[in-house]
Amino acid sequence: MPSNGFTVAINAGGKSSRMGTDKSFVPLLGRPMIEHVVARLADLGQDETILIANHPDAYAYLGLPIYTDLIPDKGSLGGIYTAIHYSHSPDTLVIACDMPFVNADLLRYMIGLRTAEGGPFDVIVPRVEKYPEGLHAIYSKACLGPIRECLDADRLKVISFYGKVRVRYLDEPEYAPFDPKGLSFFNANTPEELEQARRLAGE
Description:
There is one protein chain. The chain is an alpha/beta fold. The protein has one domain (6-202): Spore Coat Polysaccharide Biosynthesis Protein SpsA, Chain A, CATH 3.90.550.10. It contains 7 helices and 10 strands. It has helices spanning 33-40, 56-59, 75-86, 104-112, 144-152, 172-175, 191-202; strands spanning 6-11, 27-28, 31-32, 48-52, 66-67, 91-96, 123-128, 131-132, 136-140, 167-170. The strands form 2 sheets. Strands 1, 4, 5, 6, 7, 8, 9 and 10 form an 8-stranded mixed β-sheet that branches. It has a two-stranded antiparallel sheet with strand order 2-3. Strand 4, helix 2 and strand 5 (66-67) form a beta-alpha-beta unit. Helix 3 runs antiparallel to helix 5 (144-152). It is globular and about 40 Å long. 40% of the residues are buried. The model has no long low-confidence stretch (mean pLDDT 90).
């Protein structure tokens, strides 16, 4: 793998408790939501695309390498850890399976920031209303140790290790030219949000 390469990892390991059914497979414009995410991430120049999922059989039809959580029941942070661990690249772009409107132009911009002034960075992450979108972020292999410490201590907030690594934030003025409505960060976590996603997709 080239040293400046990156992996795309789709995090589909959650319990979908608020949706009431596996949110990866809820229909959006006639096909499962996960398929929209895979399609939007298909052509970013990555070395590989992998899936983090705890029910691999359900996702096998997508034809992607699938990995189950290294440490069970550690939430999204555990999924990020698993993705970075299995990634064959120095950097891993982690995207949640319930973000059907991820924006390829914004993601390419973020990928370009890895070597930007002040870098290299261990985390490149947008902030929405001052809160980092940790499941729409790029992570370097240097994050593995600090994340593992947090997992072992049961500190499971996605941002709990950020203080130990070099973080590059993007705030709204920087990402708005690519995504003026901020739809990249729209999560369809609940039936209500799914209905909203269907309306947005229809527009």
